[in-house]
Amino acid sequence: MNAHESQRAADALRWAMDSEKAQARPFPQEPFPFTPAWPEPEARFLRNDLPPSPALPLGDVLGPRLTEWVVQAAEAAAARLSAAFPGLHIAGMLADPTEALVLPRFAGVEVRGNVLFLSAVAAGSYTPDDLSLVLRSARQIAGNGAYLITCMDLKKPRKVLEAAGNDAQGLAARWNLSLLQRINRELGGDFQTARFHHVAVHNEMLGCTGFYLESDYAQFVTIEGRRFDFAAGEVMLTGITSQYNAGEFQSLAVEAGFKVEKMWTDAAKWTALCLLVAV
After folding, report:
1. 0.90 cut: is pTM over it?
2. Are residues 214 and 197 in contact, defined by beta-carbon separation less than 8 angstroms?
3. Phi-psi map region of 140: left, alpha, beta (phi>0 left; psi -120 to 50 alpha)
4. pLDDT of residue 2 exceeding 70
5. How far is CA 44 from the centre of its chain?
6. Which of 23, 172, 189, 193 qualifies as a FRET site for 263, CA 20 to 30 Å off?
């Protein structure tokens, strides 16, 4: 872990400890407005038959192990899709979707149309403002008449969302607590994960579910020799998932330059598959 990432993580923790919003219960009514200062990534083409491109600094953001997993997963996905659809030319890209991107072009291949895909996990991890930036960026690179396929987590009762975020199997808790394990492993921290617990709380006003780690005791931890104090019941926000109704998502799409061509939902109307066309 380099010095830049160490300082970034330490600043994030200090912000969470010093913020007036990081109070004991009741939970904060707004997500902590922390945006990590990640390095600006450059596009990396993942197909072996494309020219070499500058290396994406994923190691500074994700760490070596997760970086290797992300690259291998993207390469494998592109290879599987290419094998399944030999008539399509498929390339994977790793880049910041809130920034303008340049789509890869294949030598000797005429481009008849672009189809972009934004997964439900990716779309839900953004605030509405950030999702608007992603859609605007997609519109810019897609061009008129291009399609965007995305999945949306639709609004549903609070008890349903909180039951999912606090699942009985403890999958969300293990994922959330792994953040502390990574700080211990890569930043020299001494968090005792058994002294924190995971909790998910839905904010109906903001239309998002927040994932928190709550301190069970008054305690302190050190990270690279720096001390951070926690009060009993103090919480850290570690992530969000956003939910929308059909009208809210359609407004975001229209503002970004898309028209919602079609929207399919499940029987309970909890999720939606959306087909957008750039206009």
Report:
1. no
2. yes
3. alpha
4. no
5. 19
6. 172
Contact predicate 4/33, CB 8 Å: no
Helix or strand (DSSP H, E) at 59:
helix 58-62
Q: Look up residue 37 and give its two tokens.
A: 């200062």
Element containing residue 253 per DSSP (H, E): helix 246-256
**Integer Cα distance of 211 and 51 in angstroms:** 41
**Does position 15 have pLDDT exceeding 70, yes or no?**
no
Distance of CA 209 to the CA centre of its chain: 13
**Tokens 């993942």 identify what position?**
46
The string of DSSP letters for 111-141 reads: ----EEEE-HHHHHTS-HHHHHHHHHHHHHH
CA distance 49 to 70: 19
Q: Which range among 47-56, 181-190, 256-265 has the greatest average pLDDT? A: 256-265
Nearest to residue 230, comparing CAs of 24, 7, 11? 24
Q: Grade residue 186 by pLDDT with cuts at 50, 70 and 90.
A: confident
d(CA 73, CA 148): 22
Closest CA to 232 of 26, 32, 24, 21: 24
217-237 pLDDT, tens digit each? 999 999 988 999 999 999 999
Q: With b meaning 16 or more CB within 10 Å and e meaning fewer, what string describes 125-154?
A: ebeeeebbbbbbbbbeebeeebbbebbbbb
Burial class (CB in 10 A: 0-12, 13-18, 19+), 274: buried
